[in-house]
Design goal:
Elements (H helix, E strand, L loop, with lengths): L4 E5 L3 H12 L3 E5 L11 E4 L4 E4 L5 E2 L3 H9 L6 E2 L5 E6 L4 E6 L26 H6 L7 H4 L5 H15 L8 H10 L10 E4 L3 H15 L3 E3 L4 E7 L2 E7 L2 E4 L5 E4 L3 H7 L9 E10 L9 E5 L5 E5 L2 E6 L10 H16 L9 E11 L3 H4 L12 E3 L12 H17 L2
Parallel strand pairs: 1-2, 1-14, 2-10, 7-16, 14-20
Antiparallel strand pairs: 3-4, 5-9, 6-9, 7-8, 11-12, 12-13, 15-18, 15-19, 16-17, 17-18
This protein binds flavin-adenine dinucleotide (FAD).
């Protein structure tokens, strides 16, 4: 009898993670991707104007992200990850140029909180009790409602952390999703909080090594394959239509849909999906600034939130970019450069060659209402499983969530042998 096939649609991290799990378990896997390359929102590319490779957005993961770690081990990519090698987070307050570095200790007991030189500047140990409030959060709680905005830790930690990690305004951000991140990081001690940043780029860490393993396991990658329609017979998919090319789905075959939420809404409106999204701006400046620290700096109180330095490029993340809708791109480039120049001790008046990208649908809005719209991987249909960071992972839109969703979808498929 011929082997069943699993058709994975979408070669972002969710699809690649599903394909990896399935192929390592001996399944025959075919991956279909609309673009001529894999990676989706997590990829690098050559920018001809800047003359160098850049990531489509700065991506920070932490050593406590268990699914990311497993994925990197399975794809032999762990050595491609760099970063400070310790749980350290440098910050600068844009308002007064005050600088400090949070230096967590490695064990579970957070004694760094009691050391003035290790905690957030201007905060007291008791301020950190707010962490317990988030860890006790319930499903419908918002982070804003559980935190005291007048507390110094709010402006210098909670606000940037929530906006950076959830890409959602703290007042409406889901405290339960924030808790999902805290459980894997700060609540698990310093060992779980070592920042991990690709040494070369997102593609070199998350995509190419995975594609190599998939190739070794005879996974077929079909690029330029945009799914247009699905032919159903009751609760079973019988045919996939890629721009008029039909792929028949045999009786025992499975389909994993690892597509973005907005596309799923059009394609299968009966599947609940998040409906509200948040944009991220990424500004890349060509600068020859030495990286004399962790490789990144958190910026408090400005437009820039995180500045990453790598390979002669300073890349800046601006989350919840809708907040800056009225600012023309050119003006934004100047405003952000002023902050970066102050950080790097460079001339604020001489804006170097730069590129500004707006990712309009960067993540779903991590609110309690949107979180309720996220479906499980198991659909109830006979041969379809769902993956994607927007499915019910217990995390906001992250690399960890995307990889986790792929594992869940693979588990659904393997359960129905
Ligand atoms: C600017 C930016 C910064 C980010 N920063 C971080 C960060 O610091 N840390 C972090 O953990 N996460 C971060 N994220 C989130 C992270 O990138 C995503 O959660 C993750 O990459 C989503 O993976 P995915 O596979 O679920 O979706 P996608 O990456 O969107 O993959 C979906 C794939 O499906 C393909 N596709 C779409 N339509 C079709 C079709 N009809 N037929 C076939 N294929 C199709 C797409 O081309 C794509 O390859 C960031 C995202 C952005 C945009």
């Amino acid at each position: 009898m011929s082997q069943r096939r699993v058709h994975v649609i979408g070669a972002g991290l969710a699809g690649l993670s599903a394909a990896l799990q399935l192929s390592l378990s001996g399944e025959k896997v075919i991956v279909y991707e609309a673009a001529p390359f894999a990676g989706g929102r997590c990829r690098s590319f050559l920018d001809r104007e800047l003359g160098c490779r850049i990531d489509n957005g700065n991506h920070l993961t932490l050593s406590g992200n268990a699914a990311v770690q497993d994925y990197l081990y399975l794809t032999n990519a762990i050595e491609t990850m760099g970063g400070p090698g310790a749980p350290v987070f440098p910050f600068v307050d844009v308002a007064n140029n005050e600088r400090w570095t949070v230096r967590m200790n490695e064990g579970l007991l957070p004694w760094w909180i009691f050391d003035k030189k290790r905690r957030v500047a201007g905060t007291k140990p008791r301020d950190y009790l707010s962490m317990a409030r988030i860890l006790a959060a319930r499903e419908g709680d918002t982070a804003g409602a559980l935190l005291d905005k007048n507390n110094p830790l709010y402006r210098r930690f909670w606000e940037p952390f929530i906006i950076g990690a959830l890409n959602t305004e703290p007042d409406i951000a889901s405290a339960a999703l924030l808790k999902g991140i805290l459980v894997q990081s700060f609540a698990a001690g310093g060992k779980a909080c070592v920042p991990l940043i690709p040494k070369v780029g997102l593609t070199e860490t998350f995509i190419t090594p995975c594609l190599n393993v998939l190739r070794q396991h005879d996974v077929e990658m079909k690029y330029y394959h945009r799914l247009r329609a699905m032919l159903w017979e009751g609760d079973t998919v019988r045919e996939l239509d890629f721009n008029g090319n039909a792929v028949e789905i045999d009786a025992k075959d499975w389909v994993v849909l690892a597509l973005p939420a907005w596309f799923m809404r059009e394609m299968l409106p009966q599947v609940p999906t998040p409906t509200d999204f948040r944009a991220i701006i990424n500004a890349h400046y060509r600068v020859e600034a030495p990286d004399d620290g962790a490789g990144f700096t958190g910026m408090i109180g400005g437009y820039a939130e995180w500045v990453f330095l790598r390979g002669g490029v300073a890349s800046v993340t601006i989350s919840c970019a809708e907040r800056h809708k009225g600012i023309p791109v050119r003006e934004m480039a100047d405003l952000v450069w002023r902050e970066v120049a102050a950080l790097l001790h460079m001339d604020p008046a001489r804006v170097p060659p730069h590129r500004i990208f707006l990712e309009k649908y960067a993540t779903f809005a991590a609110t309690p209402a949107q979180n309720r719209l996220r479906p499980a991987s198991f659909t109830g249909w006979n041969n379809v499983a769902l993956a994607g960071e927007w499915t019910a992972t217990g995390l906001p839109s992250t690399i960890e969530g995307a990889i986790r969703s792929g594992i869940k979808a693979a588990q659904v498929v393997m359960r129905w042998k």
